[in-house]
User: Fold this.
Amino acid sequence: MAKILLHCPLNISRAIVQMMEEFCGKLHEKNGIDIQVETQPHRADEKSLLKTYVENDDLPDLIVGHVDDFADFTHEYIAERFQSLPGRFPVRRELSDKGFTDTRGYFHPFGIIPFAVFYNRNMLGENEIPGSWEELLDPQWAGKVLIPDEFRIVSVVTKAFIKADFPDKFCNFKTNFIHRGNPMEVVTAVDEGNFPLGITNIAFARISREKNTRIIWPKEGLFCMPQVMVWGKKAPESLFEVGDFLMSKKVQEFLSMQSFVPVSDKVPMPSLLTENRCPLRWDGWESFMKAVKGRH
Assistant:
C-alpha cells in the first residue's frame, strides 16, 4: 500500500484530503494501487507524524504540504530518502523567475500561501498603518499585533522571517506580537476592535464579519509558505499521477479561490494579489530553509 502524508493549513486541509481520496479511488480502479492518505492533526499537543516516520525509518511514499517540515533535514538525508524529479512538475513563469523552482528536483510546489498583515480601519487611519514588516517592530506597536498560537504555521514562518530579515530589531518581537488563538479568532479580535493589527494567512485576512478590517501590502512583499509535493525513494511511478492531479485545474482553481497562489499557468493569479501589485517575499530555497531551520 502506498502512503501519503498531508500537512496543509487547516482551512484547506479537509477539502484537499477529500479531493485526493476521491482521485486516489479512481487511481486504484485504473492501476490497482491502494493508497492511504494520512493527515497531520492541527493541535499543539500532537507529535509530528513526519517525525514519527523518520524515527521509524519508514517514510511515506508522498509527502504533501508545508515545506518547513523538511528544514531540519540535511542535504544528504534528502538525497538518500527522496526522489529527485527536476522539471516533472513545472511552475508558472512568474514563480519560476522568482526562484520557486527547486533546481535539485526534490520540492515541487503546487500552491503558495501568502501571509498578510491587516488592520482595523476604525482604530487606524491610512496614514497611521505600518507600511512594512520592519515597522511592526517599532515600539509604538508594543502589545498591538495579534498573531495565532505559536505552533501555527503562520506564526512559525512570520517569526522566522522577521528574525532573519531584521535581527537588530528582533528583540521587540516578543513585546509587540501577542500569540493567541486560531487564525479565525485573530481576525475576529481585530475586527471587533480588541487589537489594531493582526496577521494570518491571506484566506482569513481578506474576510471579516463586521467588515472593519483591511489588508496592508508591505513594501518587502508578503511572507509566504510553499505547499510542496515530495516523493519517497520507493514511491511507484503511478503515484506521480497524484502530483498531476494537484497541479490540475480543479485543485489550482480551489487554491486560487482562497487567494492562494496557483502554480499552474492554467489558472489566473488571484485578483486580490494582482490588483494590489504586492509580490511574494522570496529569496530562494536555501534562504527559506535557513530561516526556518530549528524554528520550534
